[in-house]
Amino acid sequence: MPKRHNMPEQLFKIRHSLAHIMAQAVTERYPDARPTIGPPVENGFYYDFAVPRPFTPEDLEAFEKRMKEIIQRGVTFERKEVSAEQARALFANNPFKLELIDGLLSGAGDDMGEEEADEPSSNNARPTTISVYTHDTFTDLCRGPHVASTREINPDGFKLTSASGAYWRGDERNPMLQRIYGVAFETEQELQHYLHQMEEAKKRDHRKLGKELEIFFFDDEVGPGLPLWQPNGAIIIEELEKLAKEMELKHGYQRVRTPHVTKEDLFLRSGHLPYYAESMYPPMELDNGVKYYIKPMNCPMHHKIFASKPRSYRDLPIRLAEYGTCYRYEKSGELFGLMRVRSMQMNDAHIYCAEEQFEQEFMDVIAMYLEYFRLFGIEKYVMRLSTHSRKGLGKKYVDNEPLWLKTEDMVRRAMQKHNVPYVEQEDEAAFYGPKIDVQIWSAIGREFTLATNQVDFAVPARFNLVFVNREGKEETPLCLHRAPLSTHERMVGFLIEHYGGAFPPWLAPTQVMLIPIADRHNDYCRQVAERLVALGMRAQVDDSTERMQNKIRKAQGQKIPYMLVVGDKERDAGAVSVRLRNGEDLKAMPLDQFIAHVWPIITARKAELWPMETGGA
Fold first, then answer.
1. CATH of region 512-604, choose from 3.40.50.800, 3.90.1150.10, 3.20.20.150, 3.40.50.1820
2. 378: which residues sit within 8 A by CB, 6+ positions away?
3. Is 513 helix (H, G, I), strand (E, B) or coil?
4. Which residues pair with residue 435 across a beta bridge?
5. Spelled out in words, what is the top-level CATH class assigned to the domain 216-499?
6. Second label for 547, Cα 20 to 30 Å away, from 62, 173, 315, 507?
7. How distant is the alpha carbon of residue 576 from its chain centre?
8. Which CA distances in Å does 546 have to 199, 517, 520, 553, 560?
9. 3-state secondary structure of 29
10. What is the CATH number of domain 9-204?
11. Which sign does the torsion angle of CA 361, 367, 369, 375 carry?
C-alpha cells in the first residue's frame, strides 16, 4: 500500500483523489504531458509529469481553478480490474506507466513505495489483473483507495503550492520530470492554519537566516554538502560542544580522538562494507594498492580503542565520546542545507556495558535527551522504537532473530519501567540492533529527526570485544551508539529555525553590541566592551559612521540580544542605555546593574531571555 504517514483514512482518500484530479487538469491543458506517479503524502499530495518545459505559476493557478470545477460537479471514482493486455492498451502512449505495469507483473510491485500500482497478491504470485481508477475523463493505473465522489472533497481545503524537478523514481540516472505539490485538508480553517505555518517556516528557513546572520554558507568550488562555518557559526558550535562536554563529564564519559581516514579492512570487519559503500566516498589506493576510506562514522575506531587493552567487569561501563568529523557521500538530489550534508561533526559516543547494566545506561542516555530538550525549550517530541522485520534478516539486518527479539524487548521493558512514552516503527532499525529515534518539533511545528540511541548486539563480536566477568570468563559487551545532539550541522539548522535566529543570550554569537551615539563616545564603549569580554561575554562596538538609529536597526536585524547605547549622560555616569532586540527600551542603568542582570542568564544557559525582556524575542 502507499505510505499513509499516519493520516486518517478519509484524509488519505481525499489527498489521493486530489492527485488524480490534478493529473486530469494538467493533461487537459497539456495533452502531451505524460502522468507518471501521484501519491498522497504528509500534508498533501504530488504528481510527477513528463513535459517538455517546466510549469509556471500561471499554470498552477489554471490547474487549481480547473480542479475546483471538477470537484464541484460531484464526479465519482470507479475502480475496474483489467488484464495486463488491456492495461498496456490503455497506457500505450505512456512509457512510464508501461514500466510500472511490467514491474508489477514481474513481482516488483512490493518495492514501489509510494508509486501508484497495484500490489502483487499476498502469496507473492504474479497478479492476473490490474486495477485502474476512472473519474470523469481521466483513467489512471492505481491501487486506490479514493473517495466515492468529489462531493467528499472541500474545494476550499486544498492549494497547489509549487512545481519543481524530480527524477523518475528518485534515481538521478533517470529522466527529469516536473513535480507539482499540493497541500490538502478536510476544512478551509486547517488549510489556512497550515499555510500560515509555512509562511513562518519560510521566514525561519535556516538556509535563508544562515546566510543573513553570517553563520554558514556553501561554495561551488568547495563542493555541495560541505558547509563553510563563518565566525558566528563557529561560536554556536563551540558553545554546543562546550555544553556537551560538560554534560558528558557529569555522566561519566571519557573523550577520545580518531583519524579521518582508515584502511578498508576496518569497514569490512565492522560490516559497513559492502552494504554501506554507496554512502561512502570512493577509496584512495595508497601503500602499494591498499585502499583507504575517509570515515563515515566513528564506531569502528572506538571499538579498536576498547580492544586496545584487557577489560574487566570492574571497568564497565566504559563510555567513549568524540567530536569526530565524518563524511558521507549523500546523493546530490538529497542534500538540503544543514539538514543533509556530506561533511558532519558527530556528537558521538559509544557505551560498552554488561547486559545487567543495559537498562541503567540506556535510560541515562534518554535522561540526557530530556535534559537537552528542557534547555532548548523543545516541548514536543516523540520517542520512536525502531525494530527489525523478519523479511530483512540476512539482507538489511544481522541474521540473528533471537537476539533481535531479546534486545527489542529489553528496550521496551526499560522504557515502560521508567514511564517514557514511545511508539514502535517496524523495519527502521540499524543493521546491528534496535534503536530509539527521537522526532522533535520546532517552535513553529516543523518536524525534525534529531537524536538516536542504538543497541548494538552484533558488531562487538566482529571485533572480538570481550571483558572478564565476575566468574572469570570472557563475555562480549553490549554497545550503545548515542548522539543526543545529532550532528552539529543538523542541530544548528534546527536551532536556527526553532529560535528564528534569535538565539538565547548564552548561544548568541554576539551577545552585546555597544552603540556610541557620536565618535566621542567610542573610547568609553570600547572600555565597556573590554570589561564585558574579560568577564566572558561576547561584546562588540559598532563604531561605524552610521547614525544611531541605523546602528540599532542593524543590531536588531542581526538579532543581537542586548544593545547598549551610550551618549554623554551614560559615559559621564558610568552607565549604559539598554535596548532589547524586540524593540523594548529599558532606559539607562549603571553598567554594574546590567551585568548583574545578564550574567546569570548567560552562565545558566536559560532557554528564555532575560526576565526584564517582557515583550518576547
1. 3.40.50.800
2. 372, 440, 441, 498
3. strand
4. 386, 454
5. alpha beta
6. 507
7. 42
8. 33, 9, 14, 11, 18
9. helix
10. 3.30.980.10
11. negative
Under 8 Å between Cβ of 340 and 334 = yes
3-state helix vs strand vs coil in the chain, percent to 5:
40, 25, 35
- Give the Å distances, CA to CA, from 575 to 332, 470, 569: 54, 66, 8
| Residue 16 burial (10 A CB sphere; 0-12, 13-18, 19+) | buried
The pLDDT assigned to 2 comes to 43
- The string of pLDDT tens digits covering residues 527-581 is 999 999 999 999 999 999 999 999 999 999 999 999 999 999 999 999 999 999 9
pTM of the complete model: 0.80
Q: What is the pLDDT of residues 142-177, one digit of tens each?
A: 999 999 999 999 999 999 999 999 999 888 889 999
Q: Which of 121-125, 316-320, 349-353 comes out lowest in average pLDDT? A: 121-125
CATH 3.30.980.10 segments of the chain: 9-204
Residue 112 amino acid letter: M
Q: What confidence tens digit (pLDDT) does each residue in 5-54 have? A: 568 999 999 999 999 999 999 999 999 999 999 999 989 999 999 999 99
Say which residues have a Cβ less than 8 Å from residue 243's Cβ, sequence separation at least 6.
375, 605
Helix orientation angle between 188-204 and 488-499, rounded to the nearest 10 degrees: 120
**What is the spatial distance between Cα 338 and Cα 213, in angstroms, rounded to a whole number?**
15
Distances (CA, A) of 160 to 44, 73, 168, 449: 9, 20, 21, 26
